[in-house]
Amino acid sequence: MSARQGGKLRAGLIGLGAMGRNHARVLSGLDGVELVGIVDPIGDTNGLLRAPVLPDLSELLALDIDYAVVACPTALHEQVGLELAAHGVCALIEKPLAQSVEAATRLVEAFESRGLVAGVGHIERYNPALQNLRTRLEAGELGEVYQVVTRRQGPFPHRIADVGVVMDLATHDIDLTSWVTGQEYASVSARTVSRSGRLHEDMVAAVGVLADGTMVNHLVNWLSPLKERSTVITGEKGCFVADTLTADLTFYANAAIGTEWEALRAFRGVAEGDMIRYAIPKREPLLVEHERFRDAVEGKESDIVTLRQGLRTVEVAGTVLRSASDGSTITFDAPRAAPVEGVPIR
């Protein structure tokens, strides 16, 4: 799809929650895009938005938009997405893609059958630390990868009511793990608890194995006063630590340290070597996500999170919940030691 006469795509936004307002801010200043309308039944309570706020989706569709950003509650993603697809409108849908595998599958089929550009807002893929880490893994700087450990915890976000911590937060870690390593999940085992009195789980601990044998550990919760967003990847040459709150990437190298100390002479394991904190450009991930999606809508080659990738993440998250429910380790059907949609194998 090419830009309209005058050079700008017409974009709409559905949902003005915490994330929706961030989308509105970015869309309002995005080169080559005009934010022409926003759908939210409550309206613009702050009166700070440049675009008109409409009560329902039909009024937004009447504005002849090229694409829409879907930032309403997850439970509404399927309904809104299917209506956009039926009207030939491209869509960037916030993560998770949908509440269930079945709903996510219907969204994939709706957009693919019409040849529409559609993506999922897995924003961590655009975090500078993880972008740089992925490039270094592809270049073989860590050698063989042994383990991926993620920790994502903090206080409960009162804006979330329709899904638990697995579908809301853990989908970040599931997606970024497959994306960074280029490997799909082969098996997973998980445990969840609910301590805040809400309907859904608020803590999960998951252990998994990727298709190439890499071990995976995810610890995610809404119960901690400490906010943490950490990805640690350990391999034969050391480990990378990505802090996605600060967008810092640090490498801790293995080193063979010579010593005359008799007690250590027989030690043949890992010894601490140099530590490097990389200086990397730190652009706002949400802005980069929007730029990539805009480019895709314009028909340019662009790295977006496809609906099929979003579907796979929902599948893994659903399996995590199923494993926690029955206490089992679940193996995925025919895991493949192959790239995740264009990501090279190490």
TrEMBL record:
Gene3D superfamilies recorded: Dihydrodipicolinate Reductase, domain 2 (3.30.360.10), NAD(P)-binding Rossmann-like Domain (3.40.50.720)
Ranges where the Gfo/Idh/MocA-like oxidoreductase N-terminal domain occurs: 10-122
InterPro entries the record matches: Gfo/Idh/MocA-like_OxRdtase_N, Gfo/Idh/MocA_Oxidoreductases, GFO_IDH_MocA-like_dom, NAD(P)-bd_dom_sf
Protein name per UniProt: Dehydrogenase
Chain segments annotated as transmembrane: none
GO molecular function: nucleotide binding
Boundaries of every GFO/IDH/MocA-like oxidoreductase domain copy: 131-240
